[in-house]
Each structure stands twice: as structure tokens, then as C-alpha cells.
Amino acid sequence: MKDLIQDFPKHLKDALSIAENAQLRSQGMRPANILITGLGGSGIGATIVKDLCESTARLPIAINKGYSVPHWVGAETLMIASSYSGNTEETLEASQKGLEYGAMMAAITSGGTLKQLCEERGLNHIVIPSGNPPRSMLGYSFVQLFRILSNYDVQTPDWATDIDAAADFLAAQQEEIKAEAKKLAKAVEGKLLVTYATNGLAGVATRWRQQYNENAKILGWDASIPEMNHNELVGWAGGSDEIAVFILRSETEHDRNSIRANKVAEILSEKTPHVHSITAKGDTEIARVLSLIHLGDWLSYYLSVQNGADIMDIDVIESLKEHLKSFS
Predict the structure, then answer these.
(1) Is the pLDDT of residue 29 over 80?
(2) E strands along 168-242, which residues?
(3) Domains of the chain
(4) pTM for the full model?
(5) 290 vs 52: CA distance, rounded Å
(6) Which of 77, 70, 96 is nearest to 152 (CA)?
(7) Which of 116, 91, 92, 97 is nearest to 40 (CA)?
(8) Cβ neighbours of residue 255 under 8 Å, at least 6 residues apart?
(9) What is the pLDDT of residues 254-300, one digit of tens each?
């Protein structure tokens, strides 16, 4: 896992090459709406890409994380299925329902049943390298989501140029990012972790939480500003120094959210001394998002080392899958 995290900038470069060479057919029309379906490490890229496209796309992008699909899905819907293994049962069932509803279908996968379905139906799909934990392959699915969206004439940021530059930036900043992650890990050792984010970074906050769940075997939660100001902030009456907080921020955050984030940090500091505000680095929105993702991945690695956790162990997930098979 350490090597896979280290190679994140290389993954982005490799993913750009895969995207450039992907053979995708045009459907001859721009969809009216988009649904991206996927879970866990295969699905988090969709949440993050959706956030990044909100300022450019002139059509709704929805995220699906379950077996069913909304009733509005139809012939004008572009449905993108993301399953690294190609065998995620929720994603496969949702994909079948999307096809039944007549949706345009595309997929990102390394193989499995989803790849077979795409080949049999002649569906657009991009195959990414197999054999690694899905959470470590985010760079690949992230890039291919942009490639598929652009194929269907969905307005996106200047993703290829920005991702290429961001990969160079991350490679150059790798040691500094690792040092910051190691320092943060030490500062929050033994704490319950909470990750908040201002506008545009909610998906990144979820990624941080997922990574310290899976890699470091630590519980925690994530929420966004301003939403948490209307409910969760009150819950901090029961806060304590057993909780550590990360607040993910960007220089482009809404002015009012900037004021909110500063005040939230002040309020929470009355309950715990472990409040860390982290401002994303980079020249573009994509670079800032990717830099925070990389920092969070390294943080989860150092937390796993501190905890003596087996970073690769996901036996409880595999056990659940085996249990579900007995009900097939």
C-alpha cells in the first residue's frame, strides 16, 4: 500500500494515457442527465468529479450508491457504472436496471462481470489495471470519469491539462506531503477522527474518512460546511479532547464559508485542542483536490503504522460478501 500511495502521481499519468487511447463511440446526442453508480473505492471518484464539474456542467449529475436507480432514469440518461473488480453486486444490479430503463451505459472496470456485460452489449467501457485494492486505484477511475463525460459532450474543466500538471506538482511535492501527513498523524494519535470540508471538498472529506477507516482501522465521520452549521455544530456540546478534527479548505471557498470555517475552528477548539485547518495547495481546482487526496492517503498510511494495523486487511468486508452469497 505504501508503494501504491507513493505511485499516485504515476497512476494519474498512466490513467491519462489510457484515457487518450480509449476507443469510445459517440451516441450522437448529449444526455439530459447523468447518473454515476459505484461504491467504496470504486465510487468515491464519482462524488469528487461531480463536485469538480458543478461549475461547468449544464446538466444534473447524480450519484448512486446502491442496488436501485431513480425512476427518472431513461433514454436521455447517461449512466456510468464504476466497479474496479467488475463484480460489485450493487453496481451490477443497478446497471441492469439502468439498461432496462433504456439508459445510455458506459463503465469503468478492470474486468469481471461488468466488463463481460459491456462486451456482450457493445457498451462503451474503459479497462483499467487490475490486481490492487480498489481504494488504491482512485487515480485511474478519477481520470476515466472525465474521459467518459467529455465523450458525451458534457462540459468539464480542462481536466487532461490540469491532471497532467497536478501529477507533476504532486511528484515534486511528495516529500513535503509525506512530512505533513506524518506530523498530522502524530498529532491525532489515539483520537476519534472527524473531517469537515468547505464547499467543493465534501467528496474529499469522505475520501479521507474512508481511507482511515480501511487503512488505519479507525472510526470517524465527515460532514460539510455550511450544512454541519445547522445541526452537527450543536452536537459538539458533547465534544471532548478524545476527538480530533480536520477542516479541509480551499482558497476558492465561498467568502461566507471562510468566515464559517474560521468560527467553527474557534468553537471546536473550546472542546478539543486537536483542531487542524488544512488549506489545499495547487494552481487549479483539480490540483487542489488531488493534493488533498494525496495528503489524506499518506495520513491514513502513517495512522496505520502508529496503530500497528494491517493496512491491507479487509477481511470483515470479504466475510460480509461470503455471508451474502448464502442468500443468493
Answers:
(1) no
(2) 192-197, 220-224
(3) 2-157 (3.40.50.10490), 182-307 (3.40.50.10490)
(4) 0.96
(5) 11
(6) 77
(7) 91
(8) none
(9) 999 999 999 999 999 999 999 999 999 999 999 999 999 999 999 99
